[in-house]
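Margin note: ligand = protoporphyrin IX containing FE.
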Amino acid sequence: MSGPGSAEYSDIQALARFGHGGLKEALFLLLEIADPAAAGDWLNNAPVSSAEWTTPAPETALQVAFTVDGLRALGLDEAMLDGFSEAFIAGMAAEPSRSRRLGDVAHNDPSHWHWGGGPDSVPHLLLMLYARTGQLEARKATLQEDLFNRAFRTVAELPTADHGDREPFGFVDGISQPAIDWERRQTTDLHRRDRYSNLLSLGELLLGYPNEYGQYTRRPLVDPLSDPAARLLPTAEEQPELHDLGRNGSYLVMRQLHQDVAGFWRFVDHQADGDLQQRERLASRMVGRQRDGTPLVAHTTQAIEGIEESGRQADLNQFDFAEDPHGHQCPIGAHIRRSNPRTGDFPPGVTGLLSRLKRIFGFGRRFPDDDLIASTRFHRLLRRGRVYGAPLTPEQALETDASDEPRGLHFICLVANISRQFEFVQNAWTMGCKFAGLPNESDPLLGNRQSLADGQPTDHFSQPDPQGPSRDTQGLPPFITVQGGAYFFMPGIRALRYLAGRAAAKDDSA
Ligand code: HEM
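Resulting structure:
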């Protein structure tokens, strides 16, 4: 069925549609607004890349996103800010209870972060520069002219590195992404996803469109009678008399995750008594894929909606975990199984009205724990991270003098609902020590290994074994340290120009 028209690509920042994979160099600038009028001028003319397809492909790209403090600095008043989500307004690190839920305690505590952890180090905006190899410095220089220097103060510059398609532990990354329903072909209100579907409504990525619940996410809507400049903004689809500051924008979650690559490979090597095959086996079971990206479970024979029928994406993503309920092939606690359990709205095998009704009334379970995991489609993330630091192979990592220079992942994801998507995945699925009924263990890559309130350790990783008891790996050290983070709003391009105009008006009225 065809929907109410496709997305407005010219008003959407490119990052929502493209990962800029061909632009191997990238630099993230975290900035504070020093002079709102100059910032408004700069932002009004900034060559921000849109999601329109162009040939030839662009040589460079620029994206921009703001924290709530940044929007304040541009002149948005509290009534308008109130239209954004509670998590965005609160920020990633401002509340101890949120930090606890995100696992940002002990060595991950925001008080240790390089940026974003305290009121003085939360940036106002994030500029993301991408360029073909060798062109980044020149691009940066053209952006950072006089006006830029008057407008902004740099909080931090985050360089990135090109490790090919690998993340620093050495695994191919960026293989699985939700397929976004850009053409709005599926209805969002009625689709019942008995099985895992990889197709996601536009409203799970962008504000201003129906989400997987068939509803519009809360965002600031402006009455042009009280603010004539709001006519610059698109109208709100469900309330056309109002203009929509959120439409075509996304929340952008960014976390600087330091990876202890030497620590990771030494730990798995030690567990494997130096046996190369066993070492690879344990490492791949922690991730849920082999290093080259091959998944640990067999392909399903049934087509998965939103996965192409052939090609690399299909080869590496044509699976769910329905035929591996006990985690014999891919451990239940493996990173990819936690971060996307590939569940549908009902447990596997429930199709048709009768079996649905049986399940709704609590009958007909195949396994005692087959509905412990929430339906995946409400908790997907579009990942856009970049790695930093020099590569270190597993072999180099095992040498005694392995370099310990900083390396890791600038984790970035785009979502329309920070708490239901990013925070849920981070809290309930990756940090959660009861995920899918697993006792007291968290994500083998991401876990902070802090004991539970009752003193129970969380530093193990279980691998169910069809031949006997689960094989437990004990004493996992933390491999990841959070070193920065913030919640941003990446506006649509008309909204960006509107915000730039607010900054200029703020200064006039000052
Ligand atoms: C340094 C930290 C991290 C490393 C090294 C890492 C590594 C990986 C790797 C190797 C994959 C498999 C490649 C793929 O399926 O695309 C993957 C997938 C994934 N990761 Fe991470 N990751 C990290 C942090 C995170 C965080 C913080 C989250 C979210 C809270 C996350 C969410 C995901 C998701 C959603 C997938 C795709 C799973 C799927 O759809 O099958 N990752 N990660």
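Residues 440 and 456 are 7 Å apart (CA to CA).
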